[in-house]
Amino acid sequence: MPKIAAFPKGFIKQLVSGEMSIYTWIDLATEIEIDGLEFYNDFADVKDPSNWPKIRKAVEGTGMVIPMMCASPDFTIPDPAGRAREVEKEIASIRMSAELGAQYCRVLSGQRRKTITREEGLGYVVDSIEACLPEAQRLGITLILENHYKDDFWTEPEFAQMMDVFVELVNRIDSPWFGVNFDPSNAIAAGEEPLELLEKVKHRVVTMHASDRYLANGTIEDLRREEGGSAGYVSFFKHGVIGKGLNDYDAIFSTLKGVGFDGWISIEDGIDGMEQMHESAEFLKGKVKEHWG
User: Fold this and answer.
1) 76-121 pLDDT, tens per residue?
2) Are 75 and 124 in contact (CB under 8 A)?
3) For residue 176, with 0-12 CB atoms within 10 Å meaning exposed, 13-18 middle and 19 or more buried, which class applies?
4) CATH number of the 3-292 domain
5) Distance of CA 239 to the CA centre of its chain
6) Is residue 222 within 8 Å of 236, Cβ to Cβ?
7) Which of 81, 108, 212, 236 could form a disulfide with 245 if both were Cys (CB 3.0 to 4.6 A apart)?
């Protein structure tokens, strides 16, 4: 049966700046009564490797684990030396993941730079991910590629944001140490249909980001007009409580159950406070029990 983790979406800037301690987040998360906490490799408290044993012990002391590491490598840099630095950063994140007890470490494609062609970008990304795979295999970490919008600190959207590019990229990498982190809301942000994307990659999905979005105004067509979805999180596309937005979680979970998925589902929520995350967690617990028994 899938297990539920949480990612501190609402506190990401405070945790990165150090304004909020990771231990404060751990204490808050214990109240949600879930199985794990997804980490981000840029949290201030994880920058120092000497902190890792203490942080891992703090999480595991609550009965939770750290199953997933969120990292944002930028593999579309045209300069080979620049890409090599991104590979080294991702390998460092893989090692951090292993030390913290995680099973999964996210990879991304990179920014959709206007100076590179689609084929050039695909080549850069495939080569870069494949350069990370030996270390991932050595440490028992599965790299998870997310259908992503844009890292908070990037200026351009994700190179593989759109379904056709994402699916081609996934199909070019054949390794048991590589899979998909499916995020249905990011497909909507791209102006595309989450269930259509899921159908194309369902056999490669090993983890999932659970969130939900709603349109404060406007329509899905308005999202599509935002340069084919590349503008992504436009002002009228809001985070909300999971189960109350645009995603059909019954259809998503039925599809995943049908292919034997039993991985981690990480809540990306809490933008408007912890009460929202509690409500989302309860919804997901009920749906997991309903679909997996």
Assistant:
1) 999 999 999 999 999 999 999 999 999 999 999 999 999 999 999 9
2) yes
3) exposed
4) 3.20.20.150
5) 15
6) yes
7) 212
